Amino acid sequence: MIATVGLAIGIVFLAELGDKSQLMALTFALRYRWWVVLGGITVATAAVHIISVAIGHFLGAALPTTAIAAVAAVTFLAVGLWTLRELVTDAPDDEEPAPSKFATTAPFFVVLSAFLLAELGDRTMFATAALATDNNWAAVWLGSTIGMVAADALAIAVGILVGKHLPERAIGFGSGLLFLFIGTLTGVDTVTPTLGLLPAIGIALLTPGAAAVVLWWRRTLRKAATTWPNPDEIQDRRVGEQH
Predict the structure, then answer these.
(1) Residue 80 to residue 82: CA distance in whole angstroms
(2) What is the pLDDT of residue 104?
(3) Rounded distance, CA 112 to CA 42, Å?
(4) Which of 12, 15, 45, 156 is geometrically suited to a Cys-Cys bond with 147, CB 3.0 to 4.6 A?
(5) Rounded distance, CA 119 to CA 186, Å?
(6) 3-state secondary structure of 144
(7) Residue 129 pLDDT exceeds 90
(8) Residues 6+ positions from 199 with CB-CB distance below 8 Å
(9) Each residue of 25-37: pLDDT tens digit?
């Protein structure tokens, strides 16, 4: 059993390196307290891997992974757009934004639900199910859960280090754009699973890139509006000069 736990830890940990779940963990760590993010990831991982070992060891069935991935993609896109919308509308550029509703309303539930959707049907789930077909299911569940939490904990640590050196507004915009990237990448993988990683990443970068251009354009217009002279002020100045 100990050997199976170690095998599951190693396989899942390596499978998670560079996976979108690590990027999600980093993104959440920029917005929420690290123990909230780690707790949500741990509960979600334990739940998903229970399903995985049940599929591999007991059921031999499959989940509707395409539908689940589509819901996950829409969810990530919605979170990203909502985060950017709140940052754009809540405060001027020279002020810190008000805390996002996603940062103040049930953050544990947000992290938990996001990881549940993301990991159902992910490659880690299939790896766990495959291990459970020929090994002790409890050992596979324990090892796979530890391996994934450990990999995502590394990403959380990176998020903490990055967050200490960035202002709140930059963190908010960065996390919003990252959610857009994750959502688009999930959608691309769902629609064209044989496309390949690099082309999928290239397509997924278009969405946050377009959003960044729109935000830059909006910020430019706002600055221009503040520097243009007000017609009433011009008229008052002329009247004062005449007197």
Answers:
(1) 5
(2) 47
(3) 8
(4) 12
(5) 11
(6) helix
(7) no
(8) none
(9) 888 888 888 899 9
Residues 6+ apart with CB under 8 A from 201: 185
Q: Which helix (H) or strand (E) holds 61?
A: none
Q: For residue 97, report the phi and psi dihedrals to the nearest 5 degrees.
A: -70, 155
Q: What token pair was written down for 82?
A: 């909502």
Tokens encoding 135: 């090994």
> Nearest Cα to 98, choosing from 114, 85, 107, 109?
85
Give 135's contacts (C-beta < 8 A, 6+ positions apart): 4, 7, 8
Rounded (to 5) percent helix, strand, coil in the chain? 85, 0, 15
Q: Which of 93, 114, 92 has the alpha carbon at shortest distance from 29?
A: 114
Q: Which whole-number Å values give the CA distances from 228 to 95, 147, 217, 224, 235, in the listed order?
A: 21, 57, 17, 6, 14
Q: Are 22 and 153 in contact (CB under 8 A)?
A: no
Residues in the chain: 243
> For 106, left (φ over 0), alpha (ψ -120 to 50), or beta?
left
Q: Which letter does DSSP use for residue 41 in this model? A: H
**Six-digit token pair at 62?**
């499959």
